[in-house]
Structures are given as C-alpha cells and as structure tokens.
What we know:
Largest sheet of chain A: 2 strands, antiparallel
Structural class of chain A: mainly alpha
Strand order of the largest sheet of chain A: 1-2
Shape of chain B: globular
Number of helices of chain A: 5
Largest sheet of chain B: 5 strands, parallel
Shape of chain A: globular
CATH architecture of the largest domain in chain B: 3-Layer(aba) Sandwich
Number of domains of chain A: 1
Number of strands of chain B: 5
Radius of gyration of chain B: 17 Å
CATH topology of the largest domain in chain B: Hypothetical Protein Ychn, Chain: A
Number of strands of chain A: 2
Largest interface: A-B, 19 and 17 residues
CATH superfamily of the largest domain in chain B: DsrEFH-like
Number of domains of chain B: 2
Oligomer: heterodimer
Structural class of chain B: alpha/beta
Number of helices of chain B: 6
CATH class of the largest domain in chain B: Alpha Beta
Radius of gyration of chain A: 13 Å
Helix content of chain A: 40-55%
Distance between the termini of chain A: 27 Å
Strand content of chain B: 5-15%
Amino acid sequence: MAQKTIAGTNVEVDNEGYLQNPDQWNREIAGEIASEIGISLTDKHFEVIDFLREQYTSGVPLTIRKVGKSGITDIKGLYGLFPGGPLKYSSKIAGIPKPASCV
Amino acid sequence: MKNNDEKPLKKVCIICAKGTIEDVYATLVLANGAVMEGIEAKVFFTFFGLDAITKKQMNKIHTGTVGNPAMRMPGGLPFPSVLGMLPGVEAGVSAMMKSQMEKLDIPPVDEFLEMITAGGGEIYACKLAMDMFKLSEGDLWEDCSGVLTVGDFYGMCGGEGTQIIFT
C-alpha cells in the first residue's frame, strides 16, 4: 500500500489515491484532495462527506440513492456538488475507500 | 495489461429493445453507471423496451419464467418451465426479483430513470416502435427527452470515445 503526504499528513492510499484508513483523515486533507479534483468545498459538501463517513463507519454499502434520501441534498444536487463523480469523488474527499457499488 | 494509449470512454449510447426486468435493468445500470463516472449517456428505448418508459407499464415489468434455462428456485434447484406457465408464477417471481434488488438499493424503474436524468443522462423513445404500438408522447414518462428516428439517434452517437451498446 502506498504512502502519500496530503496537507502535511502522511496517509495510506490505494493506487487511485483513496485513503485506506478513514481515521487518518481530517478536513485539511479533504480540502487538498478536493482541490486536486477541482472542487472547492462548502458546508454542503461537508454535510455529504460527514454522512458518507458515518455510513461507511457503520458498514452500510454506499450508493448515490442513499445520499439522495439522506435529506442533505437530492441526487441532482449531489451531481452539482461533485460533478462527474457523485460517489467516487465524494468518497475520495471523505477519506474512505473507493465504494464497490454499481448504483 | 493496461495500455497507456487508451482513450477514455466519453459517451455511451445504449439501446434497449426488450421489456423484461433483466433487459431493462441492464440498460438502466449501464446508463446510471456511466453518468456516475462522468460519462455522457443517451438511452434509446425501442420495441418492447418502450414499456420501461411508458407510464402505465414502467413499474410493472416482469421477467420471463418460461424458456429461461438460467431460472432457478430459491436454493438453486432447477425451475421447470411448466411451473412458469401457471397463472401468477411470473408475477410472483418478478416481485421476488424486485425485492431482492431493492435490498441492494436498486430503485424501481421510474426512480432509476430520475437518477439517470439527474446526472445529465438523456432518455429517448423510438418513433417507429411508438407508431407500431400506437403510443403517443402523452403515454411516455414525463422526463423523456424526445421521440427519435433511427437517423436522429445515430446523429447523437458522434464524437471520439463514443460507444453504442445494445442490451
């Protein structure tokens, strides 16, 4: 497993840059991954990110449908927040492994 | 082996001509998966595939229980075709499949289409099949982007990194 320094912290990542240990994550890391993707984070982004981290921690498989039903934003809004990768970019920024989900 | 000269996929044009659960869902999963990856998706429903975007039928699609050799009982025993012919069996099997999919967070057809269009995917109906089945635009799901001839469809399939997929 590769090591990478993001926002001054040494973290474990896979070959696509997804954090492998969500405990190594912090908001500065989120900001740096987001700016690499080309997204500048707002409070709304962090609401989605916190939701994903909670779901991941409780072992629930992630889907965009779940985010759409979370009450934070609808699916269209999710695409607006994370263009071109509503689940993969949000998960990457949230510091959780790449979701193995088809929906 | 990964070829570094590979050009990424940019657009998929998906054709669905059948109205069974497996054909329609294969189409919807492919289209939704594309937009989730930032790939443009255009979906063209034709012939019996039109059921998936016809208001009256879209949430009532079934899987065929006759002439389907991959069909098995829960537990894996073979599913005799004669059983599939009995009234209600096809509906029961279809309901069971849908409940299994719901557990995996796969939505009903109308909601799935909404997810695809929320991501910028476009849904089209085939003009010829509409004429054949005597359907009008009012019969179609509201967010359908239009009714196309085959020529119109091909006109949308241009551009580098585009693939046409026939489910």
